[in-house]
Amino acid sequence: xxxxxxxxxPAASSRxxxxxxxxxxxxxxxxxxRFFAGYPMTPFTEVxxxxxxxxxxxxxxxxxxxxxxxxxxxxxxxxATGARAATGSTGQGLSLMQESFAEITxxxxxxxxxxxxxxxxxxxxxxxxxxxxxYRHIVxxxxxxxxxxxxxxxxxxxxxxxxxxxxxxGDYLTAHMQEAVSVERIxxxxxxxxxxALDGTLGGTGRSGIVSPLGFGKLGQPAPGIERHLRNIVAKxxxxxxxxxxxxxxxxxxxxxxxxxxxxxxxxVRYVVKRLxxxxxxxxxxxxxxxxxxxxxxxxGAAAAARTVATFELCAGQMVDDVRLGVAGRAPVVTIGxxxxxxxxxxxxxxxxxxxxxxxxxxxxxxxxxxxxxxLPLNDRA
Amino acid sequence: xxxHIPVGPVLDTTxxxxxxxxxxxxxxxxxxxxxxxxxxxCGEPLTIRVFLEAIQELGVAQKTVAVCGIGCYTxxxxxxxxxxxxxxxxxxxxxxxxxxxxxxxxxxxxLQGDGDMVxxxxxxxxxxxxxxxxxxxxxxxxxxxxxxxxxxxxxxxxGQRTKNTLDGRDAQYHGYPILIGDLxxxxxxxxxxxxxxVHNAGAIARTKKMFRRAFEAQIRxxxxxFVEVLTMCPTGxxxxxxxxxDYMTETLGEVHIMGELKVGGVVRSTEELHTENVRRAEEAAxxxxxxxxxxxx
Lengths: 382, 297
Hints:
Structural class of chain B: alpha/beta
Number of helices of chain A: 12
CATH topology of the largest domain in chain A: Rossmann fold
Radius of gyration of chain B: 22 Å
Shape of chain A: globular
Oligomer: heterodimer
Largest interface: A-B, 49 and 41 residues
Order of helices and strands of chain A: EEHEHEHEHEHEHEHEEHEEHEEHEHEH
Largest sheet of chain A: 7 strands, mixed
Number of domains of chain B: 1
Number of helices of chain B: 11
Helix content of chain B: 25-40%
Strand content of chain B: 15-25%
Strand content of chain A: 15-25%
Order of helices and strands of chain B: HEEHEHHEEEHHEHEHHHEEH
Mean pLDDT of chain B: 94
Helix content of chain A: 25-40%
CATH class of the largest domain in chain A: Alpha Beta
Number of domains of chain A: 2
CATH architecture of chain B: 3-Layer(aba) Sandwich
CATH superfamily of the largest domain in chain A: Thiamin diphosphate (ThDP)-binding fold, Pyr/PP domains
Radius of gyration of chain A: 21 Å
Structural class of chain A: alpha/beta
Shape of chain B: globular
Low-confidence stretches of chain A: 1-6
Number of strands of chain A: 16
CATH class of chain B: Alpha Beta
CATH architecture of the largest domain in chain A: 3-Layer(aba) Sandwich
C-alpha cells in the first residue's frame, strides 16, 4: 500500500471517544477557528451544536444563523477581519450559499466549509464550483473521524496558505459515528501574514483597506481591475492543482481491476480490496483525498495496467467523470455504486455494506466492464 | 435735473472672492476625492458626505468598518477613506455581523440601497435588527433601481412610473410599498430608527443629527440602529435634474415620511409622523390666517 499523504499525526496519548461532529468542531478550534455560523440541517446539525458549545469558551463566537445565506455572510465578515472562520451545512444548504462561495473566492478569503452531505451526489457541487464563474474550491474528503479531525485542521491551513476556500466533504457517518480520536493542534508550518485584513484603524489616513471580490481597490492603491483579477484567481487555482493533490492508493501496480472511491465508502472499498487481495484477486484501489484538485495522475497510473476501472460512489455517478478524464481511454471505466439512502433520505442506505460492495467489485473483476451487476439493494421503508 | 452716480470701490467679479470655495471643494475628510460617478442631481453623494462628517465629528474614523452593498453607491467603496468590506447585493447586514462580532469595539455600518436592502436582502436587515446587532444599517432610499436604469423596487410608491411599471405602480398588480423603518422599529433589538432626507439644507442638517444619534447609540452598545435617507434620483425617475427635490417631497416623501421612528424605546409609526405633519401644517395655516386677519383689523 502506498500513500502520498504527508501530514503529521498527533501523538495518540490523548485519544478520546467522540462523535465526528465533535471531533470536527474540536479540531477547528484547535486550528484557531474563532467564528462559526450555521443553520441546523441533518446530518450537519451536530457540527453546529458542538461549535455553539465549544467556541465561547475558546474566546470565539458561534451564531445560529437565520438561514444559510446569513451564515455564510457572517463568516465572510469575520474572515475580512483576519479571523479563522467557517460555516457549513448539507449539500442542500450549501446550494443556498453558492453565490457567496463564488464571490468569497474572488475576494480571496480563507473560508472553511463543512459539508455533512446526505449523499455523494454533492460531488459536482463541491468540485465544479457550485456557483457562478471560473472558480474551484479545495475539497478534502476524509474517510473516517480521525482523518476528519486532521483534514479539518489542514483545511484552515490551506485556506490561509492560498487565501482560498476549502471544503471538507463528510457525510452522515462522518458527523454521527463515534471513534477514539486525539485532537491536538497540528503544526503545518507558517502561513502568510494577513496584511489585507481589516481592523478599522486605517480610516482617515488615506491608507484604509478594502476587501472586495471586484478587483478594485481604494483610490491611489494598486488594484488589478476585474479582468486581470479574474485571471489571477485562475492562475492561483492552476498552482493549487499542481501542488495540493492528495491521494491514497493500494495494490494498484498489478491490479487488473482498480476501484476508485472517496470519503466513508472508500474505507469500505479499501477493506473489501484488502480482503480480495488476501484471496489472491488482483484488485487495487485509489482514494482521492483531495477531490479538487483531483488526483488525475494517480488514477492514470493505476489504470495503466488495469482491465477495468470502477468507481464506487453513493450516488448515480459523478466522480466517474473525473476518473474518465484521468484514465483517458487507457481502460474502460464503469460505476458500480448507486443511489442508496435510508428512509429519511438523510443517511446511509443498504448499499454501504462490505459484502454487497464485494459482490459488485467481483462482478466487474470477473466479468469486465460489461458485467451485469447484482441489483441495487433497495431500502423499502417508505 | 441730473443724476449723480456715486463712485465707490468696484468689486472684482472676474474671479471668486478671497476665501470663497466652490461647493465641490467642501469635501469631507473621509472621502479620498470629490469626484464621483453619480448622475447630476443624485442624493447619494450628499448622504455619504453627511454620514462621513458624522463619523469624523464623533472621532471614530480609526475604528470604523463599512460594509457596502451593490448599487450606484458601490463606486464609493474605492473612495471612502474607511476600511470597507464589499458584500453581495442584499447581504451586507450579515457581513457586518461577522465583522462586529470579531471587532466588538469598532463602529460598523452598512451602506445599502432600497433594491439591495428592502428587495434582495429584506430578511437580512430584519434579522440583524432583531438580533440587536450593534451595527448601523444605512438605507439610501430613492424608490427605484438606479443602477439598472429605473425599475420598481419594494419601496416604489403607488403611481410611480418605472421601466417595469410603465403606467405607474398599481397596488392590485404590483403590490404596496414597504415602509421598512416601521418594520424595523417594531423589533426589540432596534434602539434607534430614523428616516431622513437630503432634499434641502434643513433636511440635510436633520439627517446628520440622525446619523450622529445612531452612531452614538451603537458606540454605547445599545443595540441595532437604522437610518434611512430619501435620496433624489432624477435619472431613475425620468424627470429634469433640477426637479428632483420637489418631485421627491411630493411623491416618495409623502409616503416615506421623514422623522424619527424609534427613540428611547418609543415607537412612532410613519402614519403618526404623517398625522403630526398634517396637524403642524394646519396649525401653521391657522396661525397665518390669524396674522392676516389681525393686519386687516
